[in-house]
């Protein structure tokens, strides 16, 4: 009603390259999430055994504390458990890169998961795998920087998936840290300087 105050916290994601085109965290619940048991609510709750997905702006990763939006993903609690989100339509352009950091959450000994990034081509319905990353709770995380330029001009849906890969399914607490599409523009080549020739 405009009769009280409010506050906002603005955080700037510092990618190594400038322009953020699409933020998977901000669009988390625009994706359709499911697990072995079917469709999942978004956001979910950490007590759900069917798998859950939600955001944290102060996640404790296995190697550090962070303060940027992070997708926390927990597959279905089984040895074959998985959780997957299909995002809305996106058109890939030259210079687009998928960037994220992936790993296990802090205090998740027994976490052993597989991260997958897939792409559904909306023209022909084919699904293409763009990358697979294996993570265990070992104090290390993986940085992903995937050039999508070879898929330029395609209308696609990105699919983010986490699968149990052994370990303890109940401890499969995984994260996608600031996943996004960024535009990386290669530097403009500098033309060679003409050198006068002596006469």
Describe the structure.
Strand 9 and strand 10 form a beta hairpin. The protein has strands spanning 19-23, 32-35, 38-39, 52-56, 70-74, 82-86, 90-91, 96-104, 112-121, 127-136, 142-147, 155-164, 174-183. With 199 residues, the protein is mostly beta strands. The strands form 2 sheets. Strands 2, 3, 6, 7, 9, 10 and 12 form a 7-stranded antiparallel β-sheet that branches. Strands 1, 4, 5, 8, 11 and 13 form a 6-stranded antiparallel β-sheet that branches.
- Residues in β-strands, percent: 35-45%
- What's the helical proportion of residues? under 10%
Element pattern in H and E: EEEEEEEEEEEEE
Work out the helix count: 0
Instruction: Count the E strands.
Output: 13
Q: Detail the poorly predicted runs.
A: none
What gyration radius follows from the Cα positions, in whole Å?
20 Å
* Mean pLDDT metric: 90
Shape: globular
Main beta-sheet strand count, sense and barrel state:
7 strands, antiparallel
Which structural class do the helices and strands define? mainly beta
Distance between the termini: 81 Å
């Amino acid at each position: 009603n405009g009769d009280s105050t409010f506050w906002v916290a603005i955080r700037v994601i510092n990618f190594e390259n400038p322009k953020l085109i699409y933020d998977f965290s901000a669009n988390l619940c625009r994706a359709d999430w499911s697990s072995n048991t079917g469709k999942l609510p978004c956001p979910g709750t950490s007590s759900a055994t069917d798998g859950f997905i939600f955001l944290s702006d102060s996640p404790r990763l296995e190697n550090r504390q962070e303060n940027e939006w992070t997708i926390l993903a927990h597959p279905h609690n089984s040895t074959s458990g998985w959780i997957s989100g299909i995002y809305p339509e996106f058109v890939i352009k030259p210079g687009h890169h998928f960037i994220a950091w992936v790993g296990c959450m802090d205090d998740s000994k027994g976490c052993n998961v597989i991260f997958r990034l897939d792409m559904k081509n909306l023209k022909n319905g084919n699904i293409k795998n763009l990358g697979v990353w294996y993570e265990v709770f070992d104090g290390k995380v993986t940085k992903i920087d995937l050039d999508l330029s070879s898929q330029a001009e395609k209308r696609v849906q990105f699919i983010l998936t986490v699968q149990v890969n052994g370990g303890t399914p109940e401890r499969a607490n995984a994260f996608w840290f600031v996943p996004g599409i960024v535009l990386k523009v290669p530097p403009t080549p500098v033309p060679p300087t003409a050198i006068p020739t002596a006469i």
